[in-house]
Amino acid sequence: VSLPVLSLDALLPGQRMEGSTQDPTFCRLLMEVGLGGWFVMTSLDFRSRKIRRNGVLCKVEFIDVAKKLSPNSRMPTSVDFVILGKERCRVIGKSKALKLRLGRWRRLYDENGEEVLLGWGEENLLD
After folding, report:
1. Which of 38, 60, 117, 124 supports an S-S bond with 109, CB 3.0-4.6 Å?
2. Side-chain half-sphere CA neighbours of 68 within 13 A
3. How do strand 50-52 and strand 79-90 relate by DSSP bridges?
4. Mean pLDDT by 10 residues, the chain (127 residues)
């Protein structure tokens, strides 16, 4: 199975994450996976600065995109969401093969380098 992988938080099976985001890439991801959609959530190992391979399969339980749409795009400017951790999983594959499917929040994804934004790129994985 090929699913997007987000390095966000250490979510556990059965745990809910409720929130709201204005991050354009995260809004786009939530819109693309949609209600009932799946992705993998993992976390960063702060000591090694690498992404953990062990994560949780997550399902989008609620999504509210009834916020104002930006004038030049059909994408909302804000999305409310509820994500439910379903079961433990492990990310397999080489880091380079995961380049377009592994998301992490970094300053380098902001053109001004001021905000931490979600972006897709090559990340080192903890083995």
Report:
1. 117
2. 3
3. unpaired
4. 86 94 88 92 90 94 74 76 96 71 82 85 80
